[in-house]
Amino acid sequence: MPAAPISVRPLASKADKKAFVDLAYRLNADDPNWVPPLKDEVRALITPGKNPWFEHAEGEFFLAERGGRVVGRISAQVDQLVLEHMGAGLGQWGMFEGEDEDVYRALIAAAEDWLRAKGMTRSMGPFSLGIWDEPGLLVHGHDYPPMVMMGHNKAAYQAWVEKAGYAKVKDLVTYDLAVDTPFPPLIGRIVASGEKNPRIRVRRIDKSRFDEEAAIILNILNDAWSDNWGFIPLTDSEIAFAGKKLKPIVFPDLIQVAELDGEPVAFMLTLPDLNLFIRDLKGNLFPFGWAKLLWRLHRQRFPNGRVALMGVRKRLQSSRLASQLAFMLIEYIRRAGVSVHGMTRGEIGWILDDNQGMVSIADAIESKVNRIYRIYEKAL
Fold it and tell me: Which of 198, 323, 363, 373 could serve as 172's disulfide partner, Cβ 3.0–4.6 Å?
């Protein structure tokens, strides 16, 4: 008996939005390494008025149905900041989940048609929804769960995307390392030398001034990353939004700022691996999930942490001082992670695969590639 035809349509109701969010939980229920994200977070991500990304971007969200049953989803988006910083005519897609390759083909065709109607000439993805959310398709590292704020998808998706005419444009790489043993002696000597330099001060953030500290960090980030491939500056409202989201889950000793002659010039932000604490919540914070999460986060030690963001001001990059500051930040956070929080493993990234400076730092502390997220592009 032939399979029922696949129909694709944009979201048109609250029920559609619920189906869009819920689908991922059904399709990934049999994957022991998939961590159910918090549903409130996913709903906020795709809701104008809640996610400030929509202040400079627009998106359409599609459902695929077969025989009256939801079998897939995808987003298509046009971001004015992407057009400004990455080139005219560049549309994006993401948030794909689907039962089979036929579903993917139907959904990507709908996303591409929407992008063409918006005047786009290239399609790039996946992005959920932008470079600062969950970029890239996991193509290496499916055999263990992702750390906090990193994506996870079925291994089959890679072949579906590539057979649809998409080619690699960039790989984003994460590195795994043991943190409960000291770094190589050379790193210790570099850190000790920096500690003797009266111009350098490394400090933990002051959480009582969190908004101010967040603004300092993200200002450095916007400067440090401005020449990187794919860089899209965070707007003031996005900085405020990120700060509000991060404040309950950050620890001051895991976020360090380096000052040179009193000026903040570098930072490193490490997050506890929240995924360890949310897996059994099944995406639901209510009625008791939020209380459980906060209790677990602040009453238990956690074995894993992820360096989610770091940066050194552009004027110092490619200098010995930049590397020294990076090693000092890594070492100070390693010490706090182990002694205060019981960490044994860390993850660094993502890092652009051709970012030689960061790759060299990762190699120097003897970390190893554990995941690769691939971004694809296709001419429309």
Answer: 373
